[in-house]
Amino acid sequence: MQDSTTPITVLSGMLGAGKTTTVNHLLSTESQRDIGVLVNDMGEVNVDADLVAESSDISDEDEELIELSNGCICCELRGDLLEAVDRLTADREFDALVVESTGVAEPLPVAQTLTLGFEGADDIDPTEFYEETGMEPLEGCHLDTTVTVVDAHQFSDAMESDAVLDDDGTDKHLGDLLVEQIEFCDVLVLNKCDLVDEEELDEIESLLETLQPRAEIVQTTHGEVDPELLVDTGRFDFEAASQSAGWMQELQQPHESAEEEHGVTSFVFQSDRPFHPERFADYLDEFPDNVVRSKGHVWLAGREERAIELHVAGQSIRVAPGAQWIASLPPEEREEVFEEYPGLEQEWEEPYGDRHTRLVLIGTEMDHDEIRDQLEECVLDDEEMDADWSAFEDRFPEFEIPEQEDETDSDSETEDESAEIGIAD
Questions:
Q1: How many CB atoms sit inside 10 A of residue 367's CB?
Q2: Alpha helices for 117-255 (secondary structure H)
Q3: At 38, phi and psi to the nearest 5?
Q4: Can you tell me the distance from the alpha carbon of 375 to that of 298, in angstroms, rounded to the nearest whole number?
Q5: 325 Rama class: left (phi>0) / alpha (psi -120 to 50) / beta
Q6: Rounded distance between C-alpha atoms, residue 379 and residue 375, angstroms
Q7: Contact 188, 217 (CB under 8 A)
Q8: Could you give the CA distance from residue 421 to residue 312 in angstroms, rounded to a whole number?
Q9: Which residue of 114, 145, 264, 372 sits 20 to 30 Å from the alpha carbon of 11, by its own alpha carbon?
């Protein structure tokens, strides 16, 4: 039963959003629970951990506070995260555990590690861990709540920024990372609201609600949040969290949203004809600034084997290899797929089978008709449909396809093979 194990709250957010301030407020106001804290910092010196210790009665000497430094818990320190969490929860000394991740951490892989244990971390030997600790990973705890702290004052600048962050040699685009943190959480803490006027604050909250419809949004100043909203809430559900991003919900149940009070809308573009690779590349070079988020799969003329995944977040535009089109499979394999997923055959249209484009676009003050027309101009016309598609210029990257992938999931994304797009470069 999860009730008998220690609940974990994971706190994510950009650098300077107010995560440490929120943790300190939580520690200073929570009187009913004894809380342990794990602080992750990319630097060799864990500054945030020092600030937590200075601003509370918590102490690393008593192992109420554990520091994970010089790395990120969403990638290279995932094994260290498991070990540290088990140290804090093994003896049930704490009523709850708060994990403050570094500003460049993506919450989804952290949640995977805290949900799947060693299946979500390949940098630690399970046998060695058991021999040293005498316990299985995560047997004394459960992931309870994922929280993202958003800086209201810097939100617009971050979304419009071209800045790239360095996560131990891995480049992360500022706006892209911010959207990833927003889309995977149970609670959104919109912090520093005193530095933003009401109109802008309402616009930001409206956009957050569209990007992540499932999350509870709390407006705060100085990280002053009711502990009941962050600790032992029982809100986390991995499947629900993974499927709850606004773009994903829109793909699953397409509809065109009406104009909202603050101009935040979304719509789905679909086409049964492929994009011309050159015209679509040109369009991505001039992609509308007011489209904050776009994601989906693209049929690119000349690439009939598999879809191309498009991923837009702020000023970041990435493409990645998508799933193989069922139409490109040998007939025997195609029939096997239809038998296993009968619903797929209903979307089949000759002569191109399941090949199509489907994109979600989320933004502010978008002219849906204009954007749809611009995308339609990228689609092959009648004459081009009869032409030799392999002769079209194609500036999109070639991808190395991993083995043993799921051939039927056309909405999946191969993040490791994604490429940042500066098509004109």
A1: 13
A2: 126-133, 155-160, 174-183, 198-211, 238-242, 246-252
A3: -120, 125
A4: 11
A5: beta
A6: 7
A7: yes
A8: 10
A9: 264
